[in-house]
Amino acid sequence: MPMPNGFNYISAVPGSGSSIAADNPRRLVILGSTGSIGQSALGVIREHPERFRMLGLAGGRNIRLLAEQARQWRPGMLAVLDASLARELAELLPPDYSPEIVHGKEGYESLATLPEAELVISAQVGAAGLPATLAAARAGKVIALANKESLVLAGNMIREACRQSGAMILPVDSEHNAVFQSLRGEKSSSLKQIILTASGGPFRDLDAADLAGVTVRQALAHPNWSMGAKISVDSATLMNKGLEVIEACLLFGVELERVAVLIHPQSIVHSLVEFEDRSLLAHMGPADMRVPISYCLGFPDRLGLQSLAPLDLLQAATLSFSAPRSTLFPCLDLARQAFASGPSHLVVLNAANETAVDLFLKEKLSFMNIPALIRHCLDEHPGEPMDSLESILDLSARTQSRAQNWAVR
Ligand SMILES: NC(=O)c1ccc[n+]([C@@H]2O[C@H](COP(=O)([O-])OP(=O)(O)OC[C@H]3O[C@@H](n4cnc5c(N)ncnc54)[C@H](OP(=O)(O)O)[C@@H]3O)[C@@H](O)[C@H]2O)c1
């Protein structure tokens, strides 16, 4: 996969010198407002209501929560998964408020491309987030990107869209946000490597025998972070770190070999960058997504977060680091291999993983069979051109049905 040059997203920051003025609120759309990231973003905005104007909120199926958010923020447009949910949502809104309610892929795309919107938070989960993220990139928006799957599926397409439209991406993922902050003001030629940290998830100390019997509840009980179900399982398998390695290559224009991963159980150092002079810059902070979200919302300024307790380093006391155990957690290597193989392998990786995680959450696949299913799909895939959104969605759908068949064989 050809690499982008330098810190291409960072150096292209439109208006990076301008602050958010209270008399000129930033016009905002949140895709995935009912999810973990969406709700954290609303928590940050609640601390600075005068700095933002909410234009649109998009949920999936949770229309009760979306209605509650809509009543509070009163955006002019709402989006949900399908037409029947849209009708139900309309019933839940007060009589003095009648926003436009759109639905499905086209609905999400129209919300992401609202002409007045400046900043789009992309926080839908999985491949479902790709069409709206790509639409926002084509429309020249500033995108606060949580939906890492978009980049994994269509990194080159999104990068080209950003180049042509002047759109830019601010990374919400805590690791990439840490790298982004550490790289500001640096020359890309000085960067030696990026070191992503991983908590290791709830199973980091288990052996193969213990892993064979782990339950969904255990997988969802992340030791440090509170997150949605899919990313919690991805963290437990280390696929999340695999997706993040790919995300780092694409965001910061570095080769696979220059993105390392270290297990850091305390989740205090959110990532590091090493420069040519052997300096290491690390970003530390509380393990709370409001930190990177607020950085993206306020960029280039920092927004105060009064509701968040400061990190007490005396309490934390120890910072430890170790190498990932790739034999027991093969998803990290599978992601690296897929990235090296090419764009269609990344689509297969992501689709097989989404299917495997869904089956695991429904208790139809064991934890150890998640990487087995992904490996099977990758081994069978000969590679094919990925030159449009349609080709990505088509291969995704074909892989998901192949993965389902493998799981019920
Ligand atoms: N949570 C974290 O701490 C964290 C950290 C870094 C990156 N991320 C990334 O951020 C993204 C969101 O994660 P999350 O943890 O916030 O997930 P989540 O809690 O499961 O929320 C997902 C959001 O996407 C919506 N959604 C689900 N299926 C959809 C579909 N088919 N079409 C459109 N919208 C759909 C959900 O709507 P309903 O709930 O209304 O159905 C919800 O608003 C993921 O890509 C994840 O990897 C998350």
From TrEMBL:
Q: Tell me what reaction this enzyme catalyses.
A: 2-C-methyl-D-erythritol 4-phosphate + NADP(+) = 1-deoxy-D-xylulose 5-phosphate + NADPH + H(+)
Q: What is its EC number?
A: 1.1.1.267
User: Which InterPro entries does the protein's record reference?
Assistant: DXP_reductoisomerase, DXP_reductoisomerase_C, DXP_reductoisomerase_N, DXPR_C, DXPR_C_sf, NAD(P)-bd_dom_sf
The UniProt record gives the binding positions of NADPH as: T34, G35, S36, I37, G60, R61, N62, N147, E149, G228
The pathway that the record names for this protein is: Isoprenoid biosynthesis; isopentenyl diphosphate biosynthesis via DXP pathway; isopentenyl diphosphate from 1-deoxy-D-xylulose 5-phosphate: step 1/6
Indicate the segments forming the 1-deoxy-D-xylulose 5-phosphate reductoisomerase N-terminal domain, all copies. 28-155
Residues reported in the UniProt entry to bind 1-deoxy-D-xylulose 5-phosphate: K148, S174, E175, S199, H222, S235, N240, K241, E244
* GO molecular function annotations of the record: 1-deoxy-D-xylulose-5-phosphate reductoisomerase activity; isomerase activity; manganese ion binding; NADPH binding
Q: Which domain of life is it from?
A: Bacteria
Annotated Mn(2+) binding sites? D173, E175, E244
One of this protein's GO BP terms?
isopentenyl diphosphate biosynthetic process, methylerythritol 4-phosphate pathway involved in terpenoid biosynthetic process
Q: What keywords are annotated for this sequence in UniProt? A: Isomerase, Isoprene biosynthesis, Magnesium, Manganese, Metal-binding, NADP, Oxidoreductase
Q: Could you tell me which residue ranges the 1-deoxy-D-xylulose 5-phosphate reductoisomerase C-terminal domain spans?
A: 169-252
Q: Which residues form the DXP reductoisomerase C-terminal domain?
A: 284-400
Gene3D superfamilies given for it? 1.10.1740.10, NAD(P)-binding Rossmann-like Domain
Pfam families linked to this entry: DXP_redisom_C (PF08436), DXP_reductoisom (PF02670), DXPR_C (PF13288)
Q: Which cofactor does it need?
A: Mg(2+); Mn(2+)
Q: Which HAMAP family match?
A: DXP_reductoisom (MF_00183)
Q: Which family does it belong to?
A: Belongs to the DXR family.
Function, in words? Catalyzes the NADPH-dependent rearrangement and reduction of 1-deoxy-D-xylulose-5-phosphate (DXP) to 2-C-methyl-D-erythritol 4-phosphate (MEP).
Q: What is this protein called?
A: 1-deoxy-D-xylulose 5-phosphate reductoisomerase
Source organism (scientific name):
Desulfonatronum thiosulfatophilum
Per UniProt, what is the name of the gene that codes for the protein in this document? dxr
